[in-house]
Amino acid sequence: MSRLALIDYGSGNLRSAEKALVRAAGGQVEVRVTHAPEEVLAADRIVLPGVGAFAACRAALDARPGLGEALDEAVRVRGRPFLGICVGMQLMASRGLEFGVTPGLGWIPGEVRRLQPTDPSAKVPHMGWNDLIDPHGPGLIAGIGASPMYFTHSFAFWPDDTADVAAEADHGGRFPAAVVRGNMAGVQFHPEKSQSAGISLLSRFLEWRP
């Protein structure tokens, strides 16, 4: 049985994500909640959740000895399929601009900036259901179509290369809702809160062969 490492670094809807992944796995993939570097390196797939401020999440990740190095080895060197959720997606960026400048993991060049809606009725934080626009690229994202997903965030990740954007959403202006580069994917929304559409995405990730 293949194994998925759901990263526990003290930030994220960990139990909700675990339950959703277990449901999506249907007993075919072992979902293990961990921050142990050796378990991350042994995993076949990795999911990094995240809720809160970019800088706080980065600090929490760095506070787990060896975890950042294990993630980099597993994802960038060994090519394990990776999914970042919300701030877990944002951490893939070069830097975050929330409460100052904080370096990200640097896996996909770009930066995390505050939403700036042009429509005054579009409040920040952006919370609630929103449709995906133009989901494309690998079947991981394209296959779920323009389904509504559940968002809760004030910042978003803008990659330097727009080819890395796999879907957008509109909240007084478009922003990237999903990114994909090689074996690395990230979603700004919360699939664990997005009912059947979110479970469908997680199921696709568990079968994804980038």
Automatic annotation (TrEMBL):
Residues 6-205 form the Glutamine amidotransferase domain. It catalyses: 5-[(5-phospho-1-deoxy-D-ribulos-1-ylimino)methylamino]-1-(5-phospho-beta-D-ribosyl)imidazole-4-carboxamide + L-glutamine = D-erythro-1-(imidazol-4-yl)glycerol 3-phosphate + 5-amino-1-(5-phospho-beta-D-ribosyl)imidazole-4-carboxamide + L-glutamate + H(+); L-glutamine + H2O = L-glutamate + NH4(+). Pfam families: GATase (PF00117). Keywords: Amino-acid biosynthesis, Cytoplasm, Glutamine amidotransferase, Histidine biosynthesis, Hydrolase, Lyase. Heterodimer of HisH and HisF. IGPS catalyzes the conversion of PRFAR and glutamine to IGP, AICAR and glutamate. The HisH subunit catalyzes the hydrolysis of glutamine to glutamate and ammonia as part of the synthesis of IGP and AICAR. The resulting ammonia molecule is channeled to the active site of HisF. NCBIfam families: IMP_synth_hisH. This is Imidazole glycerol phosphate synthase subunit HisH.
